[in-house]
Amino acid sequence: MKKYITLVTLSLLFISCGSDIKETSTNKTPAIAVTISSVNLDNNSPFFTASGKIEAANAVTLSTRTSGYVDQIYVKVGDKITKGELLLSINNTDLQAKRAQVNASITEARAAYNISEKDYNRYKNLFSENSASQKEVDDMAANFEIAKARLEAANQMKNEINAQFKYVNIKAPFSGIVTHKFIDTGDLANPGMPLITVEDPENFEINLSIPENEISQIKNGMKVNVLVKSISETLIGEVTEVSTSANNSGGQYFVKITLDKTKVPILSGMYTSVMIPTMKVTKTNIVLVPEEVIVRRGQLSGIYTISQNQTALLRWLRLGKTYGDKVEVLSGLNSEEQFIVSAEGKLYNGVRVTIQ
Fold first, then answer.
1. Where would a tag sit more exposed on the chain, N or C end, judged by fewer CB atoms within 10 A?
2. Domains in the chain and their CATH numbers?
3. Distances (CA, A) of 276 to 50, 208, 212, 227, 244
4. Tens of pLDDT along 59-107?
5. Which pLDDT score, from 0 to 100, does residue 14 have?
6. Among 199, 279, 207, 275, which residue's Cα sits nearest to residue 235?
7. Is the CB of residue 325 less than 8 Å from the CB of residue 273?
């Protein structure tokens, strides 16, 4: 009996010691320094947000109407170019041969025209002196008109050949920047194939799709704030086009925003949030948190808060609309709570934290 009691006592002592060791180990885990913030409340939000992408107002993808191998490309992506600058040349040996043939035809047609003109003028003088008949004059006049028509046809053929040279010597239609190159030297270019894209880096616009419950609030000339997400800059834009039909756009209305000129380094393709003023109040007592602190795991969205034990606690949220750089919290966080904005280490559930 005494032996059994001794074993039980030792077991309890071992468990107690293990518990103390574990607790001591947990307590020695260094705390992560964090910065916290309070929930923002917006009692009156007279705007709604639409997502869009910055596009160059003046952009063109150049192609050709002829087939041929690319002889040389004179520019690369990122180069600044001026209007009329040669960008790309396609082998044009066949066009040069056709132009030589046309030039020979023009020379022949002009010679025939000159002879016909002289014959016609001579017979007109003879007819006035009663030395030629009316029929002879008419024949010379007909020959002269035929020669003139042949010369005109040859000249028009030359114009057509010269026009085709524009599609083998691709030039810049306006000053701008080369943004894409779809072909390399030696590749075969075919009619309609994209070759080079040129954009004007001075003027930008944003095309939006607006739902029917908001489109009535948007008017031409309206000023809007445009948040460029990647660089966290807010720009000013103006509504320049508003569609009045959604028959061909799946119930969404097209709206174009033209951006004011700015020194902010924006680029075509950057994503934006456009904050459009509206006369109606969207909601009262909106709970807003910064978009950047939202933790996304698959289809779930959450935010780190601080528990009563001074540990990080991941709280799952139900989110609503986006307002600029903030997002609405529909449930999971109330106005009396604080959340972690940044941390000097990796956050996870249960890690000790200390507030800076």
1. N
2. 29-45+284-355 (2.40.420.20), 50-57+203-277 (2.40.30.170), 59-91+168-199 (2.40.50.100), 93-165 (1.10.287)
3. 8, 11, 14, 11, 18
4. 999 998 888 889 899 999 999 999 999 999 888 777 778 888 888 989 9
5. 40
6. 275
7. yes
